[in-house]
Design goal:
- Helix content is 45%, strand content 11%.
- The chain is α/β, with parallel strands linked by helices and 448 residues long.
- The chain folds into 2 domains: 165 residues, Aspartate Aminotransferase, domain 1 (Alpha-Beta Complex), CATH 3.90.1150; 243 residues, Aspartate Aminotransferase, domain 2, CATH 3.40.640.10.
- Helix 11 links the parallel strand 6 and strand 7.
- The C terminus is likely disordered.
- The structure holds pyridoxal-5'-phosphate.
- The site of pyridoxal-5'-phosphate (PLP) has 12 residues, from helix 5.
Length: 448
């Protein structure tokens, strides 16, 4: 049944059926969680041998004592490994990569704070000072739907967020370029370029090149925050590759405007992985100067454990294939449930990602909050409606982020059965209300 072609009687019969199914699901008192993109226990187990991989070893290949203070930018072998993942040429990895502690989000947080209050590299005017000088505020472009924690970082500093839509191969670059050309108070853009959170899209080569050029048209101290969190997280052989923004920016002379981030949170252990970043040599030096006030050095033993387990990009890709084997059936279960229940009904659309951690589902306008609250009633937790937009404000109230990696396959299936029923119920209820309102207004028109 397509919702826009059904008669009122058909809609009423369908509503009764889905309401009854909803009550049966509520009675099951489920307790399922599709909220955050976390690796499952089985995925974490893949890296267990890392726990004992260093027994008796205290030094890195350069003789650095892993147990002692120092080495704020990380050990050389870790910079080489993560620089390779971020697409840097080998000769650039020792000077343009910083390998830190367990979280790339912290590195992003520090970057924003340094740029906002201090200026990232020597000679940069801080954004706060620019606000005073120009009597303006700092603005950021936020491709949407996007990662809620990026938006929280901006929100915390009072940075105004400008949503820009995603096209399926990256942000709408015509809009991004015209915004940046017109407004020097735009100081950055968030990008999750491969298997974007939550849309799963991969930025096209043309998009990457246009983004690498933004530094030439933007105001002072503009940064592309290139969060390549899912750089190697492919689910299948159809996964699109991503051009190296580092190589393109290097050839264009715009490296100062590109800051890349990544981590092994979803490669090894989410709480004990390694976060890393890469940029121009000057930016990395500036970051180190500021960051050196907050820390005397990272956990180098954990960096060495990662180097020993992961070795190089080719080996990381093999390791990620094992992750894919575990989570592909869960993504397939989501796809099957959506296709079988919502496909062809006009009640929603979604992406089928070739990598990453999420499926992005769009309800008919005005229904995401309703669907999420119905699902909660039936014991299925979903990421709050609006979370994928700045300040939690999804203007159309349509986007729902589905995170299927953590629960067991049976639980993903059970949660999807609830979700699709809530989508059907809410969509038909909304349609009937609008049909009934139309009829009332037609009746009233006839009366006058
Ligand atoms: C796009 C993106 N960036 C960063 C993170 C968090 O990274 P980390 O664990 O390295 O702090 C996540 C986690 O879900 C993410 O989706």
């Amino acid at each position: 049944m397509h919702i826009d072609q059904a008669s009122i009687a058909e809609l009423q019969a369908a509503l009764a059926k889905y309401q009854q199914q909803h009550q049966q699901l509520v009675a099951r008192k489920l307790n399922l969680d599709l909220t955050r993109g976390k690796p499952s226990t089985e995925q974490l187990n893949l890296s267990d041998k890392m726990q004992s991989i260093l027994v008796g070893e205290h030094t890195d290949p350069n003789g650095v004592d892993l147990r002692n203070y120092g080495g704020i930018d990380g050990i050389a072998s870790a910079k080489n490994l993560f620089g390779e993942i971020l697409g840097l040429a080998e000769e650039d990895r020792s000077t343009r990569v910083l390998v830190g502690g367990n979280s790339s989000l912290s590195l992003m947080h520090y970057t924003l704070w340094f740029a906002y209050y201090l200026g990232l590299k020597p000679g940069d005017t801080s954004w706060a000072q620019q606000e005073k000088n120009n009597n303006s505020i700092t603005r950021f472009i936020c491709p949407c739907p996007g990662y809620d924690r990026h938006f929280s970082l901006c929100s915390q500093l009072g940075i105004e967020m400008i949503p820009v839509s995603l096209t399926g191969h990256g942000p709408d670059m015509d809009e991004v370029e015209s915004l940046i050309k017109a407004d020097p108070s735009i100081k950055g853009i968030w990008c999750v370029p491969r298997f974007s959170n939550p849309t799963g899209e991969v930025y096209s080569d043309e998009t990457v090149t246009r983004i690498a050029k933004l530094g030439k048209m933007a105001g002072d101290n503009f940064f592309v925050l290139w969060d390549n969190a899912y750089a190697v997280h492919t689910l299948n052989n159809d996964a699109q590759s991503l051009a190296s923004i580092d190589k393109i920016a290097k050839s264009l002379g715009t490296l100062d405007s590109i800051i890349q981030f990544g981590s092994t949170s979803k490669i090894t252990f989410a709480s004990a992985g390694i976060g890393y970043m890469a940029s121009s040599e000057a930016n990395i030096k500036g970051f180190i100067q500021h960051f050196g006030k907050a820390s005397i050095g990272p956990d180098k033993s954990n960096q060495m454990r990662h180097v020993k387990l992961l070795k190089d990009l080719a080996n990381v890709q093999q390791h990620m294939a094992k992750h894919a084997k575990i989570i592909t059936p869960k993504f397939a279960a989501v796809k099957k449930s959506l296709e079988e229940n919502i496909g062809g009904t006009g009640m929603g659309d979604w992406n089928n990602p070739n990598g990453g951690y999420f499926v992005s589902f769009n309800t008919r306008p005005g229904l995401a909050k309703k669907v999420i609250s119905l699902a909660a009633e039936a014991g299925v937790k979903l990421t709050p409606a609006g979370a994928t937009y700045p300040e939690g404000n999804d203007p159309q109230d349509t986007n729902i982020r589905i995170a299927p990696t953590y629960p067991e396959l049976d639980d993903v299936e059970a949660a999807m059965a609830v979700l699709v029923n809530c989508v059907l119920l809410a969509s038909i209820e909304q349609k009937l209300v609008s049909q009934t309102n139309n009829q009332v207004s037609v009746d009233l028109t006839n009366c006058t």
